[in-house]
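Table 4 source record.
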Amino acid sequence: MKKILVLAGDYVEDYEIMVPFQMLQMLGYTVHAVCPGKKAGDVVRTAIHDFEGDQTYSEKRGHNFAINADFASIKVEDYAGLYVPGGRAPEYLRLNPRVLQIVREFHTAGKPIAAICHGPQILVSAGILRGHCCTAYPAVKPDVVDAGASWKDSNATLSDAVEDGNLVTAAAWPAHPALIAIFAKLLGAKISI
């Protein structure tokens, strides 16, 4: 299986969807980005989150990101792994029962799941974090801990990722190299140049 599923929604973080989408394609995967209520050819709007010295990230309008598969036709068995980007999308995507079912199916099958920034909110709502060690954007820490996970503070530089079983999590887009490297390892990707 050389396909990866990406869960997207309006105001997903721009870098957190575009950069991993391209990195996974570079590794030879077919990457399907889906969004509840949208079909291939539709777009989601993105937001750019930046760290400019304020108490939290700043937010600016990003790009339009093209959805390239239909959410309604997703079959977990067709995919090797799941990637969940952050931004504001996870806060409402986690209200969709099918989104949560998809996450649970990936987890039950032991397939690799990567989540970044606010993406772990979806993992919390799917009920798969109990007993795991993970990280997320610092404001998501109470949700992660309340879900029964151990928190690993990898947020000093925002560039580290946390691996635990089939899960890999990170705090923000500066962690893309670490997050995608671990995700690729969990997927069994072979890199040859």
